[in-house]
Amino acid sequence: MNVNQSAPPVPPFGQPQPVYPGYHQSGYGGQPGSTAPPTSYGAYNGPVPGYQQTPPPGVSRAPPSSEAPPASTAQAPCGQAAYGQFGQGDVQNGPSSTVQMQRFPGSQPFGSVPLAPVVSQPAVLQPFGPPPTSAQVTAQLAGMQISGAVAPALPPVGLGYGPPTSLASASGSFPNSGLYGSYPQGQAPPLSQGQGHLGAQPPQRSAPPQASSFTSPASGGPRMPSMTGPLLPGQGFGGPSVSQPNHVSSPPPQALPPGSQMTGPPGPPPPMHSSQQPGYQLQQNGSFGPARGPQPNYGSPYPGASTFGSQPGPPQPLPPKRLDPDAIPSPQLNELPPQQKTRHRIDPDAIPSPIQVIEDDRNNRGSEPFVTGVRGQVPPLVTTNFLVKDQGNASPRYIRCTSYNIPCTSDMAKQAQVPLAAVIKPLARLPPEEASPYVVDHGESGPLRCNRCKAYMCPFMQFIEGGRRFQCCFCSCINDVPPQYFQHLDHTGKRVDAYDRPELSLGSYEFLATVDYCKNNKFPSPPAFIFMIDVSYNAIRSGLVRLLCEELKSLLDFLPREGGAEESAIRVGFVTYNKVLHFYNVKSSLAQPQMMVVSDVADMFVPLLDGFLVNVSESRAVITSLLDQIPEMFADTRETETVFAPVIQAGMEALKAAECAGKLFLFHTSLPIAEAPGKLKNRDDRKLINTDKEKTLFQPQTGAYQTLAKECVAQGCCVDLFLFPNQYVDVATLSVVPQLTGGSVYKYACFQVENDQERFLSDLRRDVQKVVGFDAVMRVRTSTGIRAVDFFGAFYMSNTTDVELAGLDGDKTVTVEFKHDDRLNEESGALLQCALLYTSCAGQRRLRIHNLALNCCTQLADLYRNCETDTLINYMAKFAYRGVLNSPVKTVRDTLITQCAQILACYRKNCASPSSAGQLILPECMKLLPVYLNCVLKSDVLQPGAEVTTDDRAYVRQLVTSMDVAETNVFFYPRLLPLTKSPIESATEPPAVRASEERLSNGDIYLLENGLNLFLWVGASVQQGVVQSLFSVSSFSQITSGLSVLPVLDNPLSKKVRGLIDSLRAQRSRYMKLIVVKQEDKLEMLFKHFLVEDKSLSGGASYVDFLCHMHKEIRQLLS
Ligand SMILES: [Zn+2]
């Protein structure tokens, strides 16, 4: 056995580190991406700080030819399913309980919560005085107050954050709330494609966060090929309050006589705003930086602040002009003094801002590498660009947790209601600066494992008895060290070769698997890709078939490779179909391809073996000829009906006959109504929305696809589905197989070549080139005390512990939930080990191991200080999106609200300093939980607008199931970037603004993106010069609404905006088609749907309203 020590042993396939050259692909998720950079296998010596690695010799090739107009829509599958392949019987990991929606009793119906007039007042910034510890806003009406847990005060570097805080803010309804729109579709030609990743975000504000506090108002036939031969055409797809320093909330409104704190007599406009306000300072989370008590500084007004209660409030400057400053009078205000009438709204600037939290994290944590040597460290946010140094724990790019400090007992965990979950992305792509996991080859003996629980050797195993034995860190079993693995220990008990072995010093690494880890005890053959193309009338007419065939001619040169191989080991095959299937013999010795038609779709079989799956370079001429002929052969087809299940069956049977794993790429256009297994009917019925039967819209209409999926998984057959529907196609049913096999679904509604070409081709190229692990099984082991009980993602499980993935690519995540089964120990902490057994693109069998150590606590405050809200939301969204399969949507939504309220109420009760019940106190790490949860609640799946189709909902539901934390973050809370506010010369991405109409200036232009959609909003008063520079027209009125491509103009602004668009696209896993929206234009409704802090037309609450509602729920729990 040998690990690659100084002289790197070369594994069978030559290269330890896979290299996957291809089109340039960019990273995404705010972090630089890379196509698995090849790392040299080189010397692995030396401790932590830096394993040597050579620069990725990756050859980057230019994208294949054609590139055309952009397309539209989205994508996404998921599923569950199982077979175990981890070799020997494993113990550990208990059964996964099927957790349904019902964890908590229902919550209150969430209607429109009356908002209380709020008088908010930011803490006054004292330029010279001591730093303010917090700011606060008081809400009147319901006497509800919100305040953040506090953090240490920092030197007032100036400012505050966020827009200047102002007093009057709207409550309840922002003017012009967004309409609900359906997914954008169809537009014109595309833009250029970007690559690479954005640079690090420059710090925008360096003032450290401080405490935050705010108050809000409360409130079959013969099996014979029918023909063979050369292809021929035709054959054949409250009280007036004012500012109060500190987050100590103001006394209940009633306690104060009206006017007691208010300034002057009615008449003059109330002071609205102080330009010196530090505003609401976010506080730093205790997770990084020095640990803090729950609420340091709590209760102590900062010096210089006016005394609470007598707040004369010198006249303050008027608030900055807002786009829609109209104040909506609230009924309750009648009793208030006149001057307060304009203050009845909660100041949006006084409630936790996602933008500020993101910026602060970038500023505070973006410059230093995240070193994984310390147990329980909370990593930087997913929106922060940072590098990772593996010093014993898996990078957050592979695993992120809802909390890095978990309660020692199940009682504590139940009390807190904080889900304990890990979002795992085993084959995550890394930025070029970071090394891919080292591959360790232990030869014939295979990887060293614990005899009892089968955990793999890792840095946490304890060597004892002079190195002759080791104690398992997961189950405590004492194991003998095999002679060939023996090594002496140093005086600290550590093996002297620890730093020479990745499995003893790194959080992530790979083992070459032995034949014991292979199906049928046989090393696998290289995988195959089969392209299955619908050639029915719709597919031909839209231009899809011609476009696709043309693209494949060049794309086939970019199949995934590894180890610097000259060419891909992957073999390819081709099938076309409508009501019948056509197989093609593209054997290199043929002069022309041959077609074989199988019309017995009820009992699918593969009519040929030899010549169906071929090596691209060997059969290039025949393949090219085939791809040239397909569009011509079916050009005059009148066949409109298609089959679907038989197509998948055929692909799977072909892989089975070839004894290999692989992937099917299906390009499909319509509801499969032709007589065949898996035949579907149109069952779309919007009347079911908001009824107990709504769940049926998300369920498959037949069980045939689950059965088929199971067979596919057993064969290692992953299915990627590209849909091009003109109407309902029953995505919920068609995506079952992709979802259960670890595949992807892409949907291009009303596909037209001219409009959707760029988007489709971009997605296709990326999909075909991405690295995939085939025939995979993932197991998550944990140390004693907790175990994995539930799993979310695109996979299949046939037992309670093994996550089976016919295919797993670098974009897919599996979210795992843990539960206690015993008491944990603060000293030893808790360990997770994710082991993924898979077959590489070259056919090599490997094990990828990720380890992560977490802290355990006996104080709830420690839990709340080490949570990650973005990961919590990822888990909660997946939990809810699975819940809609079994429960009414309303029940699902109520469950989420209740859980959130319980989490926050537990904090308030056990961790926060005593304070008025009217005050809402949020844990620093969770202060965005309400705003983000509200975004989940008002998402298309849980609260659809009138224009969202059943297929869209099913599609999004499955997309989210496999998303990583960065993707769910931006999907639920879109990024809104002002384009003309920052200097044109600035090379960096402009700072985002909050997703609310109130933040839009009609004199500016904005980009909005959520990972799937991309809008360019143009204000009606934008300077004519800007319009000219960007659109090459002389006035706003001449801009074409719905435009999807910006003209290529030679001026700084045009270059900057187009560059930014390319950059945004490069960060995402799917191509985002641009849609230009003009202010006041009808398309604006579509855009406004993404302004998630506002009320939505479908009934979704505004952020402010939701926060009030959440406060009400919490108060009820506490009383
Ligand atoms: Zn063990």
TrEMBL record:
It comes from the Eukaryota. GO terms for cellular component: COPII vesicle coat; cytosol; endoplasmic reticulum exit site; endoplasmic reticulum membrane. Residues 1-108, 152-351 are annotated as: Disordered. It is a peripheral membrane protein. Pfam families: Gelsolin, Sec23_BS, Sec23_helical, Sec23_trunk, zf-Sec23_Sec24. Keywords: Cytoplasm, Cytoplasmic vesicle, Endoplasmic reticulum, ER-Golgi transport, Membrane, Metal-binding, Phosphoprotein, Protein transport, Transport, Zinc. This is Protein transport protein Sec24C isoform X1. It comes from Acinonyx jubatus.
